[in-house]
């Protein structure tokens, strides 16, 4: 595959700067921010106190703080929440017009490797990039690799980060100590109580509607999330993937990616 570059208009940028920027974010997010050096890109999430996902985000280390790459339709909510949390912290939270680009299929100058999977490619912020592919092309690439987009696949704030595979995609640092929602997340991982995960399913024809039931015989085996012709992401029960799976009477096949254990 030749190098592909897409502008991701569904992502937006927030800059958190000031002397307290790193410890402030470190205490909130699932990722280690205190050791984030300039130019390093990490992946994480902001959770609710009960441990459900509010949004996924990328964190790029800056000289004076951290750049956050977040879902565009949730940027304002994130800024409001950070402002609420900051209290006396010496931080400034500002929206940025920097565009977000993704590149895959080859080496690209100015792109930082995606911390989730090497095969996803890289990301870049600001500057001028010539797009050679569409956002839809990037969605196909991501879906083919079995990587969920929580902004599309977990829009109801009811999904746990482990269900979205953040523990397998370098999105949770279990050694960093406290963060919002840490107790539930750590307990699920420690006890191995992971009943469902997001993974692709394949079928013929157009995608079923969001939320359509995946059945194993007469038993509910999962629910369809975002998708396209021939393939979709689904939240699947791990103990019900063997057997004949159907959605609305159509046969479907679970396609766990090779990076998913078991």
TrEMBL record:
Residues 14-105 form the GCVT N-terminal domain. Keywords: Transit peptide. One of its GO terms (biological process) is iron-sulfur cluster assembly. It comes from Brevundimonas abyssalis TAR-001. NCBIfam families: ygfZ_signature. It comes from the Bacteria. This is Folate-dependent protein for Fe/S cluster synthesis/repair in oxidative stress. Transmembrane segments: none annotated. Residues 196-261 form the CAF17 C-terminal domain.
């Amino acid at each position: 595959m030749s190098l592909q570059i897409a502008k991701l208009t569904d992502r937006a940028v927030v800059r958190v700067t000031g002397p307290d920027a790193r410890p402030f974010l470190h205490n909130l997010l699932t990722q280690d921010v205190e050791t984030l050096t300039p130019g390093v890109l990490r992946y994480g999430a902001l959770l609710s106190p009960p441990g459900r996902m509010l949004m996924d985000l990328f964190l790029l280390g800056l000289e004076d703080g951290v750049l956050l790459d977040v879902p565009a339709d949730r940027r304002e909510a994130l800024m409001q929440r950070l402002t609420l949390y900051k209290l006396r912290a010496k931080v400034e939270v500002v929206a940025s017009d920097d565009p977000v680009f993704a590149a895959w299929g080859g080496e690209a100058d100015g792109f930082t490797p995606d911390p989730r999977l090497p095969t996803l490619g890289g990301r870049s912020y600001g500057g001028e990039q010539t797009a050679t592919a569409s956002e839809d092309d990037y969605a196909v690439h991501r879906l083919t690799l079995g990587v969920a987009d929580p902004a599309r696949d977990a829009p109801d704030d009811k999904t746990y980060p482990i269900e979205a595979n953040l523990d397998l995609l370098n999105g949770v640092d279990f050694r960093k100590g406290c963060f919002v929602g840490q107790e539930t997340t750590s307990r699920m991982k420690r006890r191995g109580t992971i009943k469902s995960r997001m993974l692709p399913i394949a079928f013929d024809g157009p995608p079923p509607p969001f939320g359509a039931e995946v059945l194993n015989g007469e038993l509910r085996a999962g629910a369809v999330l975002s998708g396209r012709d021939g393939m979709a992401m689904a939240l699947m029960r791990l103990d019900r993937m063997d057997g004949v799976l159907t959605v609305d009477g159509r046969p479907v096949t679970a396609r766990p990616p090779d990076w998913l254990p078991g």
